[in-house]
Amino acid sequence: MKLIIDDKIPFIRGEAERLGEAVYLPGSAITAADVREADALIVRTRTRCDRLLLEGSRVGFVATATIGFDHIDTDYLHEAGIGWTNCPGCNAASVAQYVESALLLLAREGKVKLSAETTLGIVGVGHVGTQVALMARRLGLRLLLCDPLRLAGRGGVCDGEPAAGGIRDAECTATLADICREADIISFHTPLTRQGEHATFHLAGADFFGALARRPVVFNSSRGEVVDTPALLAALKAGRVSEAVVDTWENEPDIDRELLAAAFLATPHIAGYSADGKANGTRMALEAVARHFGIKADFNICPPHVERSFRYYPSAPDNAAETDPRLALYDPRRDSDALRARPEDFERLRGNYPLRRERFD
Q: Which entry of 223, 350, 356, 357 is annotated as an active-site residue?
């Protein structure tokens, strides 16, 4: 069989060849001519998988090595009889690490208190939101969990599947109004959906920000379009939002320069980019392709080893990485500094991301 693979998917070379011929191409540049004779695609979010790309090809299966799948036209794939999968939960722990590290930096600057007096509102409690909630419990924060699909017993808004790990559906009782009224920190972990009762496009818009009561810190590490950029900027200027931590942006890679300057941390869509999360996504995608085509194959995909002396940001402006092992493993200021210095390099910063681990070996 023949596979077309995004050339930025890590740890996949040498493993995909267990399935057949593998051709590696830049994800945003994959064309209909490239896939015409392919049996399967393994992509990331930069490849739009729709009729324009796939019609007339022999592609039978599409795997995206990501949690999100708004780049896949699932209606067309169903109509065309093409199987597909995403990788739910593959980088959930990585996103939780990102949020935790940002919270530690906010606390160091006196912008939040990490105690039971502080309320974190989580919007979307699927795999990612669940891991963020468990991390926040370890920090001692009070939680408000908002996920109408989980409350209805229909799985998490984040990825459409129940998320294991210690958060019960019955705990997800908060409404957006509750979060606007009570939260000191608000973190979004939903997919991007534009239709239906629980559509998330511009979920955080002017009405949402106008209803805020406590000048919260707002995180977006879900999808850029979940948050209305002009509305967030207006809320920051008016003091309705005290700080913003932005990892996902509207109109990527052409991100808003004013928001880039205003955010406490501004990173190039890398919250889920730990080597551990990438290895999980790559393994899950390959295993899904093998299952679909009835191929028996084992994949040996492990992230690189790091020693206890490892520092993600060895030239940090203070000694945070030296005093807190969590920031030694991951200090998001490195990614924020790099993006602020060269915002035009958004895609390069994502595609050439430094080694980041979730734990010391």
A: 223
